[in-house]
Design a protein that fits this description.
Layout: H1 8-17, E1 18-28, E2 44-55, E3 62-65, E4 70-76, E5 79-81, H2 83-86, E6 91-94, E7 100-112, E8 117-122, E9 129-134, E10 156-161, E11 167-170, E12 174-178, E13 181-184, E14 197-200, E15 203-211, E16 214-222, H3 232-250, E17 259-264, E18 271-272, E19 277-281, H4 292-308, E20 316-317, H5 324-341, H6 347-362, H7 378-383, H8 388-404, H9 406-420, E21 424-425, H10 427-438, H11 442-449, E22 456-464, E23 470-479, E24 494-504, E25 507-518, E26 522-524, E27 536-541, E28 548-549, H12 553-562, H13 569-584, H14 590-600, H15 607-624, H16 630-647, H17 653-665, H18 669-680, H19 692-704, H20 710-719, H21 723-735, H22 739-750, H23 757-767, H24 773-776, H25 779-793, H26 796-805, H27 814-826, H28 832-856
Helix pairs in contact: 3-4, 3-5, 4-5, 5-8, 6-8, 6-13, 8-9, 9-10, 13-15, 14-15, 14-16, 15-16, 15-17, 16-17, 17-19, 18-19, 19-21, 20-21, 21-23, 22-23, 23-26, 25-26, 26-28, 27-28
Amino acid sequence: MPGENLSRDEARERAELLSVDGYEVVLDLRSAVDEAEPAEGHRTFRSVTTIRFRAATAGSATFADLVAPSVNSVTLNGRELDPAAVFDGARIALPGLASENVLVVDANCAYSRTGEGMHRFVDPEDGEVYLYTQYEPADARRVYANFEQPDLKAPYRFEVTAPEGWHVWSNGAEESREGQTRRFAETAPISTYITCVVAGPYHYVTDTYTRGDLTIPLGAICRKGLAKHFDPDDVFLVTKQGFDFFHEHFDYPYPFGKYDQAFVPEYNLGAMENPGMVTFREEYIFRGKVTRAAYERRCNTILHEMAHMWFGDLVTMKWWDDLWLKESFADFMGSFSQVEATRFDQAWVTFANNRKAWAYRADQLPSTHPITADIRDLEDAKLNFDGITYAKGAAVLKQLVAYVGREAFLEGARRYFKANAYGNTTLDDLLAVLGEVSGRDMAEWSRAWLQTAGVNVLTPVVTYDAAGRVTELAVVQEGDALPGLPTPSAGRPHRVAVGLYRLEDGSLVRYAQAEADVEGASTVVAGLAGQERPDLVLVNDEDLTYCKMRFDEGSLETLRERLGDVADPLARALCWSALWNLTRDALMPARDFLSLVVAHAGRETDVGVLQMVHSQALTAVTRYAAADWREQGGRMLSAAALRELRLAEPGSEHQLTWARFFAASAATEGDFQLLLGLLDGSARIDGLDVDQELRWDFLLPLAAHGAVDEAVLTAELARDDTASGKRHQVRCLAARPSEAVKDQAWAVVVESDALSNALVEATIAGMQQPSQRALLAPYAGRYFEVIERIWAERSIQIGMHVVKGLYPSLEDSESTLAATDAWLSSHAGAAPALRRLVLEARDDLARALRAQAADAASPAV
């Protein structure tokens, strides 16, 4: 049998053979608090699973999934099977099935330190142990035996024995308790990957949501050490607003009973939609002052996961090809509900500038794929939680709403839920109902948008008469031709709004707009002829479609001078996004983009957009600027950051945002001295509260430039002896500019598996400092020597951290490209998922080199 992977063909065959009536899962987690670590091997817990299932063909054979160090017994229909004969470490062979079957598996499963399966975390602050599970796409088999595929849904009953004094939660409400053992109510039919257990001495707050006759018990959960920072009232507020919105628009009551939300440590994802027991990364509990944008992101995540209760949990894709059926919809619904139901009514601005940037990048990689992807196996599935499945899918759905109409879209969703409740679907099921309610040809729309890859480029072409009035405005559509990638169709249908903007009283404001269906290579937009000459033309005004927006020359010149004067926040965000795409595509020199940041970022009112612009500016100066101009560009950027920090309103979120950017861009001895002064109190900036999180933000660049040593970082950890403090310290320690430090960081990540997922990530982030290219150069060759071994020996999550994080992107030269190509050529048989990660890293490097060449050819700033 193969190892831990599972192919689509195997899953399809098993689904045709089996139907599952129910699971009973009994877990004994008392070993989590044993003081002694095992001398060798893994710390384990006992897992006993009973599966009742039917087989379409008596006498047939199949397999159950289980990843565990050992199995004590396997009983099939009362017949004892020899574990040594039927269990290979990942699968349990099940021969001689009856029409109705009962399988009982008694196993010793391993606690995880990688955020996969049953994750065990020891809080350094108080020594308490916390557990939670995370399964998507296929890690429930690390906790109990099962049929690990989304289309074999079943009801579940969990029974958990936990240490004295612990809380325990699962998907169902607690039904009974006897001593240290809790039994939980049977769930509705759900997939394996959304079952869940959370256990430990967590802090727990409760509330209730009511709507008519419906009552939903609410819970909010975090570690005890974070309770003083927790704001459950805001979590409950957003939760209730979300439930109101979805109940009103989906016309299908929340079907899973209670609704707990747990914020857990060392979490690999943003959150996970386990019905009745949603889990979130605990970084959504804010230890210091944060901006409105941070609360907006948390709100979006809460609503995204809530949308999954319908899109994904109630109705689930048959296989991971149709992952978009849950993730694209949840991503879209997160912003849609935010705007209409919460205080974050500008969420579409964030979506346009932030989420879609993720989509545009993913859609221009060699691994780009249609929204409905070809997912051959579980490794493919793991990597497909990407910007295309989430953000591009959501952008396309936003366009679909404009295309078919809001009410038709929502009515389609309502019918989809009622027709497929507790079942599994494919693309055709959704298209059928959308076509029915809209009268549109959804098959043609699907072929254009869901079944092809790539991003289109829309450019305005305007002609004027002698008086300077518009005679014709056409939108030209092109497929974005990229080296080595198929060019997307230039005939995709786009529903767009074209806006004309002019300068009025110092602001660029829209004075005319027309909507059009853009199809084919060129489309004339009716309704704009006769308008006076605009200063700025936006061909995707209001961000209705998914495209890269280009500018005519006049508009580009306007933006160089007046970008900060664009009055509408969404229009301004679209301009920033388009200018960044020009920079990534090597059509605008990096130094020109940085000049725009220096000139106009101080006028940006939306903090989320400002934070994105800051991130892009750092990428531009460290990756896209010509090597001989980087230092000058860095000084220019840090000077602008300090200027805006001093100009920002004292105590404002803009001041905080500029403070963080100043630290990230610090480039001169004066910058570092100011950061040190802000840390020790010898320097002050009026209104700036240097709390613990901001202290770590300041310490990272100081460590990277050798301005603080290990003793300072050790003292800071003593000041903040928490899980968060430890992650920050590990990152700062690995950032120090020393050969010995880099060797140690490499060793603990590559040659050892002692670190948890969170500390692996922190070590890699600290090690890879753009100012330390020479120190990192020796690891380029070593990287290609170890990655196949890492992929084979480590969990896929750790493998992804290492392969992506340690790629020698800062050794930005043609020789690194050649080394990458040589590895790819000589490892044609390597795991496809591993090759994909290397190909993506290579593409990012090739893009950076093209941008550097364009920047080098530009006039000096």
